[in-house]
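Take one protein record:
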Amino acid sequence: MATLVQNRKAVTVDPLRHSAPLGAVLAFLGVAGCMPVLHSSQGCASFVKVLLTRHFRESIPLQTSALTEVTTILGSGDSLLAAIETVTERLQPEVIGVITTGLVDAAGEDVRRTLRLRSPGTPVVLAAVPDLGGGLEQGYAAAVEALVAELALPGAGPAVDGQVTLLPGPTLGPLDVEELRETAEAFGLRTIVLPDSSRSLDGHLDDDWEPLLSGGTPLRAAAAAGRSSAVLAVGAGLDSAARMLSGADAWVVPHAIGLDAGDALVGELADVAGRDVPEVLRQWRSRLTDGLLDSSGVLAGRRVALALEPDLLAGVAALLTEAGVHVVTAITPTAATHLDQLACDEVVVGDFEDTEARAREAGAELLVASSHGAATAGRLGIPLLRLGFPVVDRLGAQHLTSTGYRGSLRLLFAVANELLAVPHSAPNPPTTSWETPC
């Protein structure tokens, strides 16, 4: 059991947290034909677009209401309506996702009332996610709840046997989402993934340039999401959205990383499908088990620091604990109730400054964090395993996997190989109880 420690520093140094609007944009990009519109200044939208573009190395469709000092003070409703009209006429999206920001909330605008003033037309989904609190996971969850409320629940009807709705969390990359879907389909289940980044942000090459991303969850599939016989969510923040679709029967977990979590996912799907576990999944489980054995000589007893989003932090910590690693430092940008289950002394809600201080004190040999942790790892003199969002200084971030048996095996070997490359990287590693000083 871990103790959750809320840092009370007066200022954040080298932030780990991303804004909630960025998470909402990420969710909308997993819906086919969707154009996200940030109700904000151009600078807010530019920052989000740059981060997403550098991570996925794709042209990210994103528009803004382009608020100025004058329109923000005198009323920004007209700017939003004008932006929606322009996007509809020029780009012809199937749905528009409107995301509020701290600027609009500070001004006190009633965005829902503003949207009721527009003429009927292209569906508009509103995600009210002020970036004055919360982070990437909270913004993503709010957008998924809005998608469920606007697109899935209105068309709900009798449950469809053999159909399952999968809600992937924001820490699942495109190939993680694909792994999740393929795992369900291995049981013969018809799957609806909402939102589905595996076919919109996976780095594929289209025949020609389009203003909107190809792939994503089609609107007709989203409308049928409320009729599935089961709902599985991999992301703790998606609990509300899952229960909107399935009530108390929804199955919600923070992650599906590691042997135990993979077994839980496969076991739940086996119960839903009413059939035995397919041989292909048994084989991947066998490979992961063998990988844990193969890497035990490298990983057992090693000291690793983590600085990740809550769900990903819990998943990586679970896998490393299964491999015998000591998680000596766990830093997260926002709090989550499930973090008290981590196999470490404490989880700190903080920034990279906290990561550096605690990792140095604990003698960490490896840091697992996004590319923003490179400077921290450099000052500590230890290697950095890049994981999470964003990864901007390495190619293939959209193809990294950590979910299920297959993804867990890849991540396990990635950690082991980083430590093998620099076996004595820890500065002044502490003497353990079974070592005798020279």
User: Anything to note?
Assistant: The chain has three domains: 3-7+281-421, 20-134, 160-276. The first strand starts at residue 3 and ends at 6. Confidence is low (pLDDT under 50) at residues 425-438.
